[in-house]
Design goal:
alpha/beta; 11 strands; 25% strand; electron transfer activity; Electron transfer flavoprotein subunit beta; electron transport; Rossmann-like_a/b/a_fold; ETF_a/b_N
């Protein structure tokens, strides 16, 4: 593998699924891990946002000497800033996570960056086997542990799947000693995001029928077997008002409506 490869790993601020606390994002940490394996300490880790966020040092604690931050406010469009930076520096490989753990979490960043740069995009990769003569041999993650071999020419954008090697443990000391290079960068307001309305998530209604099958055969049998009702009553010949009231009472009982 060439020693002069220019690899950039894009990172975001993660969010713990239980506590909600800021942390390094799992998929982004895998992207950094892959970049470290391919280029060692020469991999460049890039973030667009607030340089004062302490969770960025969890990435630095993976063995990085520095981490570059494009200064952006919370209302700025990070994709525009990242695209302009990458278009100016022209790396060979750009690694990202599949989707962020906080913010919009739309999973569109790799697609928008690849479109802006005019580069091919390889989604959900598990590994980059080799890069030789301007071509990369890639393993793409598929369902049920399967892999697909892909060959793509440099430069390209790749989103790293959870099937990739997990990020190494972050060391506190090296993370504190690493340099966070904050770069002032032109901001572009995210006009679409400013028009959104945010509201707390509503509790989803529970399913009327719960299948406790654990194997595919049991799930198929539960889906095709004739159901035997217990404790029900026939309302076919009842007046429409009584039929509607019976359906309404059932929905209330099951918690579908309140």
């Amino acid at each position: 593998m060439s020693s002069d490869l220019n690899i950039v790993a894009l990172v975001s601020i993660g969010q713990h699924p239980k506590s909600g606390r800021a942390r390094r994002a799992e998929q982004d940490a895998r992207a950094v891990e892959l970049g470290l394996r391919l280029a060692g300490e020469r991999v460049q880790v890039l973030h667009a946002g607030d340089a004062a966020d302490e969770s960025l040092r969890q990435y630095a604690g993976m063995g990085l000497k520095s981490l570059r931050i494009l200064q952006q406010s919370a209302d700025a469009d990070a994709v525009v800033a990242l695209g302009d930076y990458l278009n100016e520096h022209r790396p060979d490989v750009v690694l990202t996570g599949v989707r962020a753990e906080s913010g919009e979490s739309s999973g569109m960043a790799p697609y928008l960056l690849a479109e802006k740069l005019g580069w091919p995009l390889v989604t959900r990769i598990a590994d980059i086997v080799s890069i030789e003569n301007g071509e990369a041999q890639i393993l793409q993650a598929l369902p049920r542990g399967q892999r697909r071999a892909i060959q793509v020419r440099l430069p390209f954008v790749a989103s790293v799947d959870m099937a990739a090697t997990a990020g190494r443990q972050s060391a506190y000391g090296p993370g504190r000693r690493a340099q966070l290079e904050a770069m002032p960068w032109v901001e572009t307001a995210d006009s679409e995001r400013t028009q959104w309305q945010h509201a707390p998530a509503r509790k989803r209604p529970k399913r009327l029928k719960k299948v406790k099958a654990t194997t595919a055969a049991e799930r198929f049998k539960a889906a095709t077997a004739k159901s035997q009702g217990t404790g029900g009553r026939i309302i076919k010949d009842q007046p429409a008002v009584e039929q509607a009231q019976a359906i309404f009472d059932l929905l209330l009982e099951e918690g579908v409506i309140r």
